[in-house]
Write a structure and sequence with these properties.
alpha/beta, 21 helices, Endonuclease, Chain A, eight-stranded mixed sheet, about 45% helix, about 750 residues, ten-stranded mixed sheet, Methane Monooxygenase Hydroxylase, Chain G, domain 1, polyphosphate kinase like, single chain
């Protein structure tokens, strides 16, 4: 690889840290309401926890296996990556602490105080002492590390109070107390000071002398460790266990893996830090001092406390009823007439739920097949599938038990589905099934017909309100047939080798994407208009990135919206000059994947479950579907163009790989807010339209009644009335109609205003 070309790439892990910094910037942004800033700070921390558990854990494993393993984009060894990560995380930690202090000041203005003992009155201190002795102390379990008592096992992400204990003969010992018992409140309110709270762990830390009465405490701190959670489920597979039992064992093992990070809240001397590191087999560089609390999950309680102050939160948004469906009509029939698209969270997931419910009872439906990756805790999807099997439908469900950190939830749902009579498949050997695919098979007049749903997001009613995703429902027989082939392959423990319409990883997604990039490259070389538009969460696939570089050098205009990891650098002279990359981080998690190749009649468009990461393109089962309906194409293209114009929540990548805010040109545009406003307007217009249609229907009904009345007035059939009788009667009845119509529209107008 030429050195110049290497500058087009950046390290995956460092790129992810850049993304998490963009989340932190939302906590810093004074234009974001205060309680929402608190949420972003908490999200930043939980993101970082998972990063250490998975990515840093994986790098630590690589170091143990081989010192020569290198990142194929930047040529960094695992050791070099870890060193760079730890350095960057300390910088981000300092930034987090500063933002936390700012947020505390903001909370104080709203009457909420997170206090310490230095700010207490004598009476308040006495109250907390009594509270500690009665409510907390009896529930504590203390450990003194010594010859007969080894250093205890510290649970992943739990908070502990640690103290350096001095004995009478001046020997030092370590005392440990768990602070996450779950039996006492973490936020303790001071009765004499409304809105003032103390964290329970701070109370425990203060009163450590009451616990370790026989010792003199020379140093103390709250500590928290993060453990490696990157466990290879296949590597430890025991054939004597069924797969569900095996995954239960994986979840248990994960809790016991090696520590990769130590956080502490007090400045500790080097000797104490060294001793803690020795006990946990950590290096000093893996320790982090935090001025802010080491677990920020309590901010949800603060948010609840301030819930009545609407100005501290985002304006309430509710997913709207989609205007592409008539909810009074049968869903299957509507999809058979025309492809339908749902856009979450702007539109409700209800039409898809209704589709499943209809399929569960429709006598023409013979089977429902789905791939399930992440489900809601209370899943209506599962309820519909169970109803279908109870009604005699064949229900085949692939439940991915390797959905990281959702294993326990998926294990429980798979058990319930199996008990109900569904045919449950637990993934594929060596492949994670990440596709969002549902196939409803019908038999009508001896012919097989399909309704296929393919989406970018999980079948999760909760995340559908928080993540931006796209869901296509189609009766296209070609797509249905290929979706059926995917499920047939899954049932055999295989993957499809070739499909014409869909893109299906791992065999025929990466190569198809590359072929479409090459198509645009050749057009640009011929002087023809060439264009590529891609929206994904992450970009790491080097084969695809190399093709994008070639396309850029050939003159292809490339727009990319990459929320998180992006290993490709834009605007690098001579290589990626024609590539623009932005990241949108806002109220809702950008999750939809869109691929656009070409413009005008030559345009090919797909939506997909797959990011352009190697793990997605070659190590997972993913499905992308073409968009054939022109109206839906127009809608997706317009959405993509609006996102490219975002100048509030978008950050643009520079040639050095860093991101900066998009400069305002003419007007401010927050794409997420724009789409929600659009959804509200469309729903309101549709409601008004239906009201008017109902009014017209009512008036027509009156006309029929009045026509009968007219016939009765003339005492003759309508067609037999004389010209004079007809004229006189028409005049009277028409006046009555006009009077009624005026009254009705006046009433309707008043109601709409209300």
């Amino acid at each position: 690889m030429k050195e110049e070309k290497r500058t087009c790439f950046q390290n995956r892990e460092l790129s992810w840290l850049q993304f998490n910094e963009r989340v932190l910037e939302e906590a810093e942004d004074k234009n974001v309401p205060l309680c929402e800033r608190l949420s972003f700070l908490s999200i930043f921390q939980s993101n970082l926890d998972e990063f250490f558990m998975v990515r840093v854990g994986s790098l630590c494993d690589q170091m143990l296996l081989s010192e020569n393993t290198k990142d194929n984009k930047t040529n960094m060894t695992a050791q070099q990556q870890i060193e760079a990560i730890l350095k960057r995380c300390k910088e981000l930690g300092d930034k987090k602490d500063k933002i936390y202090e700012e947020l505390l000041q903001g909370l104080e203005k709203e009457g909420v105080h997170i206090i310490n003992f230095q700010s207490l009155s004598k009476k308040e201190a006495e109250y907390l002492e009594r509270y500690f002795e009665k409510e907390i102390a009896p529930l504590l379990s203390s450990i003194v590390v010594g010859k007969k008592q080894p250093f205890p096992f510290l649970k992943n992400k739990d908070i502990y109070a640690a103290a350096v204990l001095n004995t009478k003969n001046e020997k030092e010992k370590i005392g440990i107390i768990p602070c996450n018992t779950g039996v006492f409140e973490r936020l303790i309110e001071i009765p004499s000071r409304k809105g003032s709270f103390m964290l329970a762990e701070e109370l425990i830390l203060h009163f450590l002398p009451k616990v370790f009465k026989s010792y003199k405490i020379s140093a103390k701190s709250l500590i928290r460790i993060t453990r490696n959670a990157d466990i290879d489920a296949e590597q430890i597979y025991d054939e004597d266990l069924d797969y569900r039992q095996h995954m239960e064992e994986v979840v248990k093992r994960r809790k016991k893996l090696s520590p990769v990070r130590l956080e502490h809240t007090r400045e500790l001397d080097g000797t104490t830090v060294a001793r803690l590191c020795e006990y946990m087999k950590l290096k000093k560089e893996q320790t982090f001092y935090s001025h802010a609390p080491i677990d920020l999950s309590f901010v949800s309680n603060i948010r609840d406390y301030l819930r009545t102050k609407g100005e501290l939160f985002f304006d309430k948004r509710v997913p709207q009823t989609s205007v592409v469906f008539d909810h009074r009509k049968y869903m299957i029939e509507q999809i058979e007439k025309k492809d339908r698209l749902l856009c979450y969270p702007y539109e409700s997931m209800k039409p898809f739920l209704n589709l499943l419910s209809e399929a569960a009872v429709d006598p023409n439906v013979v089977s429902i097949k789905m791939t399930l990756y992440r489900l809601a805790k209370s899943s209506k999807i599962v309820s519909a599938l169970i109803e279908a099997v109870e009604n005699g439908k064949q229900v085949d469900v692939l439940v991915e038990l390797k959905a990281r950190f959702d294993e326990e939830n998926n294990i429980e749902w798979s058990r319930r589905l199996e008990e109900a009579g569904c045919h449950v498949i637990y993934g594929l050997d060596d492949l994670k099934v990440h596709s969002k695919l549902c196939l409803i098979t019908m038999k009508k007049e001896g012919k097989i017909e399909y309704i296929t749903q393919i989406g970018t997001g999980n079948y999760n009613e909760n995340t559908a309100k928080l993540y931006t995703d796209i869901s296509l429902m189609t009766a296209n027989p070609d797509i249905g047939q290929e979706a059926s082939s995917v499920f047939q392959a899954i049932a055999l423990g295989e993957v499809v080798e070739n499909v014409e319409h869909l893109m299906v990883a791992p065999k025929c997604l990466q190569n198809k994407v590359i072929a479409l990039i090459e198509r645009e490259t050749e057009k640009a070389k011929k002087g023809e208009e060439a264009y590529i538009g891609i929206k994904i969460n992450s970009l790491t696939d080097k084969k695809i990135m190399n093709q994008l570089i070639k396309a850029s050098r050939a003159g292809v205009k490339i727009d990319m919206i990459v929320r998180g990891i992006c290993c490709l650098r834009s605007k690098v002279e001579g290589y990626t000059d024609n590539i623009r990359i932005i990241s949108i981080v806002g109220r809702y998690l950008e999750h939809s994947r869109i691929y656009i190749f070409g413009k005008g009649k030559d345009e090919k468009m797909y939506i997909s479950s797959a990011d352009l990461m190697t793990r997605n393109t070659v190590r997972r089962l993913e499905v992308a579907t073409p968009i054939y309906d022109n109206d839906i194409k127009d809608r997706i293209r317009t959405m993509f163009e609006i996102m490219l114009q975002d100048n509030i929540k978008a950050r643009e990548q520079m040639a050095n790989g860093k991101y900066q805010k998009v400069k305002e040109v003419t007007r401010q545009l927050n794409s997420q807010e724009y789409f929600y406003e659009q959804a509200y307007d469309m729903a309101e217009n549709e409601l008004s339209k239906k009201e008017e249609q109902q009014q017209e229907y009512n008036i027509e009904e009156e006309f029929i009644i009045e026509d009968k009345e007219m016939a009765e007035v003339t005492e003759k059939p309508w067609e037999q009335a004389s010209e004079k009788e007809f004229s006189e009667t028409t005049e009277v009845v028409q006046q009555q109609k006009n009077n009624k119509r005026t009254k009705r529209y006046r009433r309707s107008s008043r109601n709409r205003k209300k």
